[in-house]
Design goal:
Elements (H helix, E strand, L loop, with lengths): L8 H21 L5 H15 L4 H13 L2 H6 L12 H7 L2 H11 L4 H8 L21 H15 L11 H11 L6 H9 L22 H14 L2
Helix pairs in contact: 1-3, 2-3, 2-8, 3-7, 3-8, 6-7, 10-11
């Protein structure tokens, strides 16, 4: 099991405030379950495997809770609609990470949290937004958040679709590996023991996902290598 870093009293109070903000974002986006807390737990489990420092893990968890505050601040009705977005709507929505960065600053989140919120839609191949960062130009925490957010969104019910099955979600993550997602981060995600337990509910703050064995990670990396040629 990967131990969670212990928050001091100031961190605990901040975390509780960020949890409340995440609940408001989840409600606005009409997630059936606490989406941001699921992302925080999954992202932290990945970060533990990748040996991120305790403070970096704390910033990552808080960024997960606040990652879509920009959408809440924008208050666009199209975010809730069931059909595909228009080109104009997609262009408008691409502003939400920058607005989210500003909202995180307004909530007194540290600079690391603000930047992770800004960059959580950057893609491994440079096709993301808002800054078109690519590969290791994207901080590791933002790469982890991109993977955790995508997996959590796929595996939760939405008003306009049912949750993907585990096999469907895994297939989508593999297809996006080395395109949208850091392939090493995806390998760790798919190797996590207990990942399916986080599919449809938010974990308690103390709940953890077991770290995979080295063999499990190696097997996933070999799978990606064969898939991507």
């Amino acid at each position: 099991m990967s131990g969670l870093p212990v928050d001091n009293e100031r961190d605990r109070i901040a975390r509780e405030a960020y949890v409340q903000l995440s609940a408001a974002a989840d409600k606005f986006e009409q997630y059936a379950h606490p989406h941001a807390e699921r992302i925080a737990a999954i992202a932290d489990a990945i970060a533990a495997v990748l040996h991120m420092a305790p403070q970096d893990r704390r910033s990552l968890r808080n960024a997960a809770r606040m990652h879509d505050l920009g959408e809440v601040a924008m208050e666009r009705d199209y975010i809730k609609k069931s059909g595909p977005l228009t080109a104009e709507e997609r262009l408008d929505l691409a502003r939400h990470p920058v607005i989210g960065e500003q909202e995180a600053a307004r909530a007194s989140a540290d600079r690391a949290v603000q930047l992770l919120v800004r960059w959580h839609h950057e893609w491994w191949n440079g096709a993301g937004y808002p800054d078109a960062l690519r590969q290791t130009e994207i901080p590791l925490g933002a790469r982890i958040l991109r993977v955790a957010d995508s997996y959590a969104a796929m595996t939760d019910d939405r008003p306009y679709r049912r949750a993907f099955t585990e096999s469907q979600a895994r297939e989508q993550m593999i297809e996006g590996s080395a395109i949208e997602f850091d392939p090493d981060v995806v390998a760790v995600l798919l190797s996590l023991e207990g990942l399916e337990q986080l599919r449809s509910h938010a974990p308690r703050a103390s709940q953890e996902v077991d770290a995979p064995t080295d063999n499990a990670i190696d097997n996933e990396i070999k799978l990606f290598s064969s898939y991507n040629g």
